[in-house]
Structure formats: C-alpha cells, structure tokens
Specification:
The chain has about 400 residues and is mainly alpha-helical. It is about 75% helix and about 0% strand. It has helices at about 20, 25-55, 60-90, 95-130, 135-140, 140-160, 185-220, 225-240, 245-295, 305-325, 330-340, 340-370, 390-400, and strands spanning about 165-170, 175-180. It has a two-stranded antiparallel sheet with strand order 1-2. InterPro entries: GPCR_Rhodpsn (IPR000276), GPCR_Rhodpsn_7TM (IPR017452), TRH_rcpt_1 (IPR002120).
Length: about 400
C-alpha cells in the first residue's frame, strides 16, 4: 500500500504509525486533550438532542426528526473516529484487531455519509415548508420524515459496505500494527472521488440553491399565507356573535400569531443554514487535503496540519448541539428542562404534598363548620345571622396552618 492512501480516512489521519510524530510528547498531549474534549462535549450534546426530541412531545416535528438523525450520525463519527485516535496516540499501535479495523472504518464512513444525507434532507424539507406551504401540509409530516430517514440510513448502510473489502490490518516497517487500506492508490482514487461528489459537493450545491430560494421568500418578499392562518381568519369572521371586548382581544391575538410563526420560521431557517455553513467550512480542510494528496506523488503529511484537519472533522460533529442551544429557544428550554429533571421531580413531589395538606386542612375546617352550624328553622324566609362566623374561623384555621 502506498503512503498516499494513508491520509484518506479519519482513522489514518492520526498518524500513530509515524515514528517522528509518536516521539513528540507535545503533539501527543495536545492531540489527546483536544480530541477528548471535543468528543466528550459532542457525545453529551448529541445524546441530549436525541433525548429532548423523544421526551418532549412538542419537539417531535419533521425538522427535529432529521436533526435526531444528524445527531445519531455525529455520535457515530465521534465514537468510531475520535476515540480510536486517542488509543492510537497513546498506544502507538492498532489494538482493536482485524474485526475492529473493519467495523470502525465502516461506522466512520456510515456516520459521515449519513450526516451529509440528513443535512440534505432537512434542507429540502425547509424549502418545501417555506416556499410551498400548501404542499407542506401533506409532504412535511413526521411519518414521512421517519420514512425518509429510514431510506437514508438503508442507503448509506449498503453503500458503506464496500469498506469491509477495502481495509485490513498490516504490520509496518517498525513492526507496529496499523489499520489501513489494502488496495492501491489508483484503485482507491475513483472510490474517493465518487464519495466526495455524492456526500460533499452535491449536498452543498443543493443547499446553496435551496437556501437562496428560501432567503428570497422568507426575507426579501412577503411569505405565502399559511393554511393555519387562513383557518384562523375564517374562524375570526364566524365568531361575530361574541361581545365587543372578546372580539377585540381575539383580533389582537390573531394578528400576533402570523408574526410569531414568521419569526419562528426565520429562526429555524437561520439555525439550519448555520449548520450547513459549518459543515462546508469544517470539512473543507480534510476534503481539500485528501483531494490534493490523491494527485501528488509526494503527499503533504505535516502532522500539525493533519491534526488541524482531524479536529475540524470532530468539531463539526460536536458543534451542532451548541448551535441549537444558541439559536433555538425551544431547544434551549428543552435542554434546561432535561438538565433540571431531578429538581423538577422534587418540586412536583413537594407541590403534591402541599396540595394534599391543603385538602386535608380544608376538609377538617369544613367538617368543624358543619358541626357548629345549626339546622335552619322551619320558616325559609328567616335567615340566621350567625351562619357565616364558623366559616371565617375555618378559613383562619387554614391560613394559619
């Protein structure tokens, strides 16, 4: 296997088999620290994304379904690509064996390709939801999103199966075990170019066109009327039988709803556009490096630049939950609610005990009042004057407790 093919995978970018790099304690310390930090933050953040969408009923939207798919793919990249690099740097050799080499490389590319397809899917979904709102009522649904996600993962699973036949463990000149490609550079080049085109160039091309159309509709021209707002206006007209005060209040609320919906859609679109831009920028160093090295006789293998490329790849998989928290009020509230889950349970228990105590005290007070009250006289027109005093005592008893 030629050296030029050793930089075509996130695993091999670690360069654990390079004696010069392995002897650099400074390089090892910095690389291990950065990878552990980014992977730790990314794993926790993506797990939280999955949990809040599954737990919170209001978060189960078509867009969030695609974000869950993206979070699962990013988790796969961080676990299959990031963590093995740490062991490579510390041990200086491949410790996962032949099965580990095959499965880890497979899951690396599965996560990378599934994340790219998930980004394309929610870009198309946003375009339909904003530019074709009538069609979105039947197309942009949670059930359809789940089917599309299933198709995406089935396609990427089948596509990435070729990596089972392209990698193997080997022993290098320094008698160290490494996981690398068992095909020549010439055979791998068309495979890489196909992968590069399908999962990087095409998604960015589609995203550029669709977000341009979305921006023209959402920011430069009035947004098309939404069926929900039309129904609200129809209901508004049919409710003229109500009094004037209620009608004025309903008109004010209905005027604010379209503005709130427009603001919410702008916020979601901006957030997803930032995700796409970061995907393009953070993957560009690695994609450019491999593309250039594929056509060079002497590949560029500077260890610090390779570390930078690797960190950018892991940062792309770790930064999305941070973007959701910064740019989405719903995700931020859901994250806070998830972090305070234990405190909420304690508060609910205390509220339940307080309510129970209130009910018991109120019942006791009412019982005492009933005992102290005398039966009314036979003449129904005569009202006893002292009938209300025991009730006041009962209320005072409750307020003191």
């Amino acid at each position: 296997m030629e050296n030029g093919s050793k930089v075509d995978s996130p695993t091999n970018i670690s360069l654990a088999n390079n004696d010069v790099v392995f002897s650099m304690i400074e390089y090892k310390a910095i690389s291990v620290f950065l990878v552990l930090l980014i992977c730790g933050v990314g794993i926790i953040g993506n797990i939280m994304v999955v949990l809040v969408v599954f737990i919170t009923r209001d978060m189960r939207t078509p867009t969030n379904c695609y974000l869950v798919s993206l979070a699962v793919a990013d988790l796969m990249v961080l676990v299959a690509a990031g963590l093995p690099n740490v062991t490579d740097s510390l041990a200086g050799t491949w410790i996962y064996g032949h099965a580990g080499c095959l499965s880890i490389t497979y899951f690396q590319y599965l996560g990378i390709n599934a994340s790219s397809c998930s980004i394309t899917a929610f870009t198309v979904e946003r375009y339909i939801a904003i530019c074709h709102p009538m069609k979105a009522q039947t197309v942009c649904t949670v059930s359809r999103a789940k089917r599309i996600i299933a198709i995406v993962w089935v396609f990427t699973c089948i596509y990435c199966m070729m990596w089972f036949f392209l990698v193997d463990i080997q022993v290098n000149k320094t008698q160290q075990v490494e996981c690398g490609y068992k095909v020549s550079r010439n055979l791998y080049l068309p495979i890489y170019l196909t992968d590069f085109t399908i999962f990087y160039v095409i998604p960015l091309f589609v995203a550029t066109i669709l977000y341009g159309l979305i921006g023209r509709i959402l920011f430069l021209s009035p947004i098309p009327s939404h069926p929900d707002s039309t129904m609200e206006r129809w209901r508004e007209k049919s409710s003229k039988e109500k009094n004037a005060a209620e009608a004025d209040g309903n008109k004010m609320n209905n005027r604010s709803r379209p503005r709130g919906a427009l603001s919410s859609r702008k916020q979601v679109t901006k957030m997803l556009a930032v995700v796409v831009v970061l995907f393009a920028l953070l993957w560009m160093p690695y994609r450019t490096l491999v593309l250039v090295n594929s056509f060079m006789e002497n590949p560029y293998l500077d260890p610090w630049f390779l570390l930078f490329c690797r960190i950018c790849v892991y940062a792309n998989s770790a930064i999305n939950p941070v973007i959701y928290n910064l740019m989405s009020q719903k995700f931020r509230t859901a994250f806070k609610r998830l972090c305070k889950c234990g405190q909420v349970d304690t508060q609910r228990r205390s509220i339940y005990l307080t309510t129970t105590s209130y009910s018991m005290v109120r019942d006791n007070a009412n019982t005492r009042v009933e005992k102290k009250e005398k039966p009314p006289p036979d003449n129904p027109t005569v009202v006893p004057k002292q009938a209300e005093k025991p009730r006041v005592e009962g209320e005072l008893y409750y307020s003191v407790v």
